[in-house]
Amino acid sequence: MTDDQPDRRSEYVPALRFHWLTALYDPLIERWTPAGLMRGAVIEALDLRPGLRLLELGCGPGRLAIEIRRRWPDLTIEALDGDPAILDVARRNAARAGVEIVFRRADITRLPDLGIHDRVYSTLVFHHLSPAGKRSALKGIRRVLTRDGHAVLADFSRPRGALQRILFSAVGWLDGPGNTHPHRDGQFEQALRDNFAQVRSAAVWRTVFGTVEMFICRP
Question: Are 208 and 167 in contact (CB under 8 A)?
Fold first, then answer.
C-alpha cells in the first residue's frame, strides 16, 4: 500500500488497535519509561555516519527518525507507515522539531521500490503484523538492504519470567494472538535467523507490557 493504493486494514493492526485511539499513542509512548532508552540504543546500533541512506519501517509518530535527523543532519531518512493518522502526527512532530524527513504511507509487508538503503530499522512494529506479513516484511528488508549494511529491529520477544508473560497478554489482546504469539514463542527470532546470515541480540528490556529485545541483522 502506497499513498495511491487502497487501505487494506487486514494487513496490520493500527496503534492501540483502534483507529480512534491513535491520537493517544504518541503521548503514551513518550511516557513509557524505556522509550528514550530504546531510541538511544537503536541509534547506537545503527552505527551512523554522514551520507548513509536510512529506511524506517513503521515510523509511528516519528520520534526516532526526528532524533536521528537532529544528530545526523547529513543523512537521508525515508520513514514508512501504513496508518495515515499516525503519519499526520509524525509530520506535525517533524515540523515542530524543524527537521526534514520523507514520510510515506506504505504497506511494509509489500515494500515499494524505494532503492537500496544502508540501514533499515524498525521498533515495536512487527508484533502488529500477521505471521505472513512478518515473513514478507523481512524478505523486503533483505531486498532493499546493501550487502554491507544492516537492520536494527526491536520488538517484543520471549518473556523473561512469568510476570513478563502475564504483562504481555495485554499486548496480545490489543494486537491479536495470531500476530503476537510468534514473538512470545520465539518464532519471530527464528524468522530473523531464517532471513539473515547474522543475527545478534544487542539489548533486552523488561517493560510493563512485556520483554522487548533489539536484534542487529546482517545479510
Answer: yes
pLDDT tens for the chain, 219 residues long, are: 444 343 444 455 555 444 444 555 556 655 655 777 888 999 999 999 999 999 999 998 899 999 999 999 999 999 999 989 889 989 999 999 999 999 999 999 999 889 999 999 999 999 989 999 999 999 999 999 999 999 999 999 998 989 888 877 877 677 788 898 999 999 999 999 999 999 999 999 998 888 999 999 999
Superfamily holding 9-218 = Vaccinia Virus protein VP39 (3.40.50.150)
Q: Where are the domains of the chain?
A: 9-218
115 CB-near residues (< 8 Å, 6+ apart): 53, 144
Q: What is the pTM of this model?
A: 0.84
CA atoms within 13 A on the CB side of 146: 10
